[in-house]
Amino acid sequence: MTAARHGGARWLTIVVALVGAAAVLGTIAFWPRGDAPDLGTQPSTYVDATVTLVDSGTCEDPAVDAPGPCQAVQARLTSGADAGDTVEFNVPASQFDAPDLAEGDKVVLLDVASSPREFRYSFHDFQRSTTMWWLVGLFVVVVVMFGRWQGVRALIGLAASGAILVAFLVPALLRDEPAVPVALAATVVIAFIALYLAHGVNAGTTVALAGTLVSLALIAGLAFVVAALAEFSGLADGRAQTLRVTADALDLRGLLVAGIVVGALGVLDDVTVSQVSIVAALRRANPGLTPRLLYGEATKVGRDHVASTVNTLVLAYAGASLPLLLLFAQGDQPVARLLTGELIAVEIVRMLVGSIGLVASVPITTALAALVLSPRDDVLSRRQRRRIGDDPVEDGGVTAAPAHAARSGRLRRRRSSAPAGLGEPVPAEEPR
Questions:
Q1: Could you report the per-residue pLDDT of 259-297, keeping only the tens digit for each?
Q2: What is the separation, in whole angstroms, between the first and last Cα of the chain?
Q3: Which of these, 180, 182, 176, 171, lies nearest to 27 by C-alpha position?
Q4: CB atoms within 10 A of CB 26
Q5: Which residues contact 321 (CB under 8 A, 6 or more apart)?
Q6: Exposure winner among 3, 190, 247, 344, fewest CB in 10 A?
Q7: Which of 135, 130, 136 is nearest to 155 (CA)?
Q8: What share of the chain is helix, strand, coil (3-state, %, to 5)?
Q9: Domain boundaries, given as residue ranges, for the chain
């Protein structure tokens, strides 16, 4: 059984390595080259400013082409070539997203240098960089304090994932590379980096990675088939319609499938690593368990995990789509027609396909772990196992936690009968 298990682990490692090599070759082949297509956007200049005065008045409202109520605002520029200057701009009351500005507000202004002075600056947004940086700092502190060195490695993996998305995935999609292969190559590389950085290079991590890769392939194939059968055009989103007009060579349906694949990766990592840890813990507790029993016991825990994770996934998608649902709820369309319209149906498909892949990852990963993991294989490092008091000792190539406990008991009994001069002996317990 041990030889078969080691052989299975070796073959699994080879297959995972081949998939990783294919992903690297795909990344090289699809790496963005040349100039990106023109998306029809004009370069804009934005400057930071601090509001110094707000007054109510009347100004020319371009929406109605007539004078109307507005806020007359003075602000001091804090960035750009004219930093330190005081500028004026108006915020018409008819503006759809007209802000309620007050003195001291930190804002972002659109600077159109070619416009007359009175129309050169206009309100664009509030400054949020300080709040966002504080939140990022708090996130880093919490992760490092709880996860320690493993948390640091997880943050490095997160940064690497973001770099792959920004440097490879998005530019390659903009250059009309095939969306699904590009997404698969990017997600496989991200999975390798994130899992091995966070959990170390060991058999347990390899099994979790294998389960993740199989589930990603299942999600990609299912999403592609459903998108084709449902005849999704990818034009339901207004931003996608803009892409169709400005870069008509883009495969919007492929972009939809790629988004589903990328979005599912983060949840898959969580489930697969957890299942491998469960199988490894059961194997350490009882090395004599058969793969069938291991699979059955670990799957029971996996069902609980999946039930809560799927609920989380569904609520996350529902929360993101809540404003859209409220908008449509005000109409008079039947619920069935509303749910099968492309705008809503896309989100439902995204949610269901991701959930199917998530559920499938549990039996896939658990079966792989039960077949190939030995008692000493885990996604936890040996140092982490020592910290929690669970570091079985290898004996003749076979790890046996019960034997380790027995040896420790014998050692304590020897110390209890130590000769004089080596410390006060502890009286041996009387036999019952």
A1: 888 888 877 888 888 889 888 888 888 888 888 888 888
A2: 40
A3: 182
A4: 19
A5: 344, 347
A6: 3
A7: 136
A8: 60, 10, 25
A9: 2-30+147-372, 45-127
**Does residue 120 contact residue 154 with C-beta atoms inside 8 Å?**
no
Asked whether 377 and 280 are in contact (CB, 8 A), the reply is yes
Tokens of 149: 């060195």
Residue recorded with tokens 């504080």 = 134
pLDDT (tens digit, 9 = 90+) per residue, 381-424?
A: 455 455 444 444 443 333 444 444 444 454 444 444 444 433 34
The pLDDT of residue 212:
92
Beta bridge partners of 72: 55, 90
User: What is the domain class of 45-127 according to CATH?
Assistant: mainly beta
User: What residues have CB less than 8 Å from 367, skipping those under 6 apart?
Assistant: 295
- State the CB neighbour count (10 A cutoff) for residue 353: 25
Cα angle vertex 161, ends 155, 162, to 5°?
A: 95
Q: What is the DSSP string of 122-149?
A: EEEEE--HHHHHHHHHHHHHHHHHHHHH
Q: Is 231 left (phi over 0), alpha (psi -120 to 50) or beta?
A: left
Helix extents (H) in 53-128: none
What is the pLDDT confidence band of residue 134, given thresholds at 50, 70 and 90?
A: very high
Tokens linked to 21? 């090599």
Of 29, 27, 23, 12, the closest CA to residue 216 belongs to: 23
Give the C-alpha separation, 374 to 203, whole Å: 9
Give the integer Cα–Cα distance in Å for 327 and 321: 10
User: Any idea which residue has 């077949």 for tokens?
Assistant: 371
- Residue owning tokens 């400057």: 47
User: Which residues does residue 90 pair with via DSSP β-bridges, in sequence order?
Assistant: 72
Nearest to 143 by CA among 129, 157, 131: 157
How far is it, in rounded angstroms, from Cα 216 to Cα 210?
10
Scan for tokens 């605002």, then name that residue. Answer: 73
